[in-house]
Task: inverse folding
């Protein structure tokens, strides 16, 4: 079996609040994210989903445990070795974080101009190919303000893909979009993931839209994680918090399957 893209072994993380009390966010959590698939991390507000992504990127340090990225324990590494591991990642967080004064083309080309020795012609070809994959051909010369919210997210993904990441991290990538647009964006993200083959890790509240593309689901609750091989498997859990989760968030998913 191929090596997990990301693995948590006994990972704990807590914060000390303003009142001086320690708040445990993750309590000896273990999970494994298979490569080349889409894993969705879900759970209620404040359960540590974004903290988990930040630990994977080492924007936060774990208090205990090991975090392996492609088999490398990243918990103790610094400097050049950390930078090297970070090159494996692409990120798309809530706002697409585009530069308003730059065209779509220049926004997407930015990582290539800053981080590679590619010629302008090579950059042009690569950027145009990615824009085509993300249904953005013909919009190269527009500015972000001239685009819909969904198009802005797609430009954000196009830029995040330029350095050929092995692992894409998404944190609420459809914030601000209506349900129809959200579903469309996730379908496009799924097609892009299948085409390029990266590992996708998505934190989202947009259930069931995001579950329709998940190979695996991780639910965070009270510092613990439950991993499920598929969204369907969730239905059969006997844990009360999972049953509640399914009842309150997933009805539409199963209803739509029944209709199909
Ligand atoms: N740097 C920090 N310092 C102190 N507390 C933090 C820090 N980062 C996160 N927290 C706390 O950790 C908890 C989990 O935060 P996190 O952002 O991971 O939640 P989440 O599951 O992503 O929630 P939401 O769905 O609401 O975004 C929250 O109570 C938050 O206040």
Result:
């Amino acid at each position: 079996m191929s090596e997990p893209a990301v693995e948590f072994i006994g990972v704990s993380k807590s914060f000390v609040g303003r009142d001086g009390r320690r708040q445990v966010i993750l309590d000896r959590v273990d999970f494994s994210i298979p490569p080349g698939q889409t894993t969705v991390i879900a759970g209620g507000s404040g359960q540590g989903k974004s903290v988990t992504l930040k630990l994977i990127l080492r924007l936060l340090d774990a208090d205990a445990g090991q975090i392996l990225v492609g088999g490398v324990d990243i918990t103790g590494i610094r400097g050049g070795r950390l930078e090297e591991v970070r090159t494996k990642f692409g990120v798309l967080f809530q706002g697409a974080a585009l530069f308003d004064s730059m065209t779509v083309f220049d926004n997407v080309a930015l990582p290539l101009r800053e981080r590679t020795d590619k010629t302008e012609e090579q950059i042009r070809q690569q950027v145009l190919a990615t824009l085509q994959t993300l249904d953005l051909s013909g919009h190269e010369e527009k500015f972000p303000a001239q685009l819909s919210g969904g198009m802005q997210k797609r430009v954000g993904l196009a830029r995040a893909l330029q350095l050929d990441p092995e692992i894409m991290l998404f944190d609420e990538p459809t914030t601000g979009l209506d349900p129809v647009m959200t579903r469309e964006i996730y379908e496009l993200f799924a097609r892009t993931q299948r085409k390029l083959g990266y590992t996708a890790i998505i934190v989202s509240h947009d259930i069931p839209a995001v579950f329709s593309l998940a190979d695996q689901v991780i639910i965070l609750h009270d510092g613990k994680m439950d991993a499920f091989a598929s969204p369907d498997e969730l239905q059969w859990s006997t844990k009360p918090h999972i049953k509640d989760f399914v009842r309150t968030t997933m009805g539409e998913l199963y209803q739509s399957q029944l209709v199909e």
User: Anything to note?
Assistant: The pocket of adenosine-5'-triphosphate is lined by residues 15, 25, 43, 45-51 (CB under 6 Å). The chain has one domain: 38-54+94-259.
